[in-house]
Amino acid sequence: MDIKKKQKIVKKWFVELQNIICKSIEQLEKEYGSKKKFKSNKWKHGNFRIIEGEVFEKGGVAFSNVIGKFPKNFAKGIPGTKNNNKFWSSGVSVVLHPKNPHVPAMHFNTRFICTKKSWFGGGMDLTPCISDNNQKKNYHKELKKLCDSHNKKYYIKYKKWCDKYFYLPHRKEARGIGGIFFDYKMENWKKDFLLVKDVGITFIYLLKKITQKKMFLKWSKKEKDIQLLKRGRYVEFNLLYDRGTKFGLNSGGNPKAILMSMPPNAKWK
Amino acid sequence: MDIKKKQKIVKKWFVELQNIICKSIEQLEKEYGSKKKFKSNKWKHGNFRIIEGEVFEKGGVAFSNVIGKFPKNFAKGIPGTKNNNKFWSSGVSVVLHPKNPHVPAMHFNTRFICTKKSWFGGGMDLTPCISDNNQKKNYHKELKKLCDSHNKKYYIKYKKWCDKYFYLPHRKEARGIGGIFFDYKMENWKKDFLLVKDVGITFIYLLKKITQKKMFLKWSKKEKDIQLLKRGRYVEFNLLYDRGTKFGLNSGGNPKAILMSMPPNAKWK
Question: What is the ipTM of this complex?
């Protein structure tokens, strides 16, 4: 299949995925008794949707499709950019900051990037404020199941990659309890795309399960404060280390779309 | 005078300056009817003091004295590091986040850095949440007076430098209303040191004047919200662009001392 065809198919999936994720989140709001809906913000490279809900104090679900050129410095180490910095990319990324400190912050992303080569990347990870070993165990069990159904080697590899990526060296702290993360996936387009679709669907399943289990729990002021401090770490990670954020801001992207991932509020001690 | 002697004299001034600044801030708290005092945090490279007050929701005043080596990448472009990355530095830096949105956030820093060469750097700038043209005019008038008493060319130069430095390109926004900023000042040690002392003293004068004028003003929820959003920009600047923050975190500095500049809380829309 030629690359144009692949891009068309992948893009169509990402558009659809954004819709399903938004619907699922609005459904969770409804179950909670809230009528809050997403607001859509179109711009030249896509469409980012923000909800300010009762369950999700702030949630962002972005679809993007960018055709551009990597800045020279950034292109170093990116496959297929030796003689040409041009790229095509499309993806969906999600960051959810729930109001209830018992519900963890959730992050998900899948993307397809084309230079002279083309590959998939993505993953998801969880950032609880209040530790819950059962939740951690179940989350990783589901991710292992997902990975194992594609390749028995994936889970360990992608879990490690996630732990390494979502780490704050200056704090010597992990951002959360990890998840899976992969990049430069270009073994077999059909199989890789199946994995990417499965990651998206599993995210929706986990998002619902985790939220439904905890969204009605009561919380104390102290627990809310723990959440706000944890959100401060989230901000530090995104602005200091996140590659996507750095790339987007340095290449003149839309700051509102890029910084959609910021929490609604945060605290520092 | 040999460099050791200069370092001793400068360091003594910075220790003293930290004390005077903290006393002035505690005095402002007292005038407001608060008994809040600074807490001192000693670590191997200095002493940072934090106040969580009634006037200053969070204020940090740090004295530091670091002897170390610049990382290779960072050393590029720094004078006197051609054959040797070692440095000696000492300085005082201040970031004040007032509770009242009518009182602007204030930033000040002066430092002395020695490699094979040695120079002073520093400045101050103001970040109001609610614009006040009179305040802006007066602030710059005082800074011009200060600069002019040393050299008629300084004010324009240092004002421009400040505007250029405290700018958020991704937002296309200035951080605040500017001030003065200078670096690599190594014309004449005695005169440069006089300027640095004068910048410190003027900061204390302005800090008092600006705070006293506004600390008793009433504010609305809307004004508090504007402040929290503005603090979000402050966070973005510090984590994305500030050279000191980047250098400190990358070189294994104490994150609590370096991130002392973070606001107590912030919001993103």
Answer: 0.86
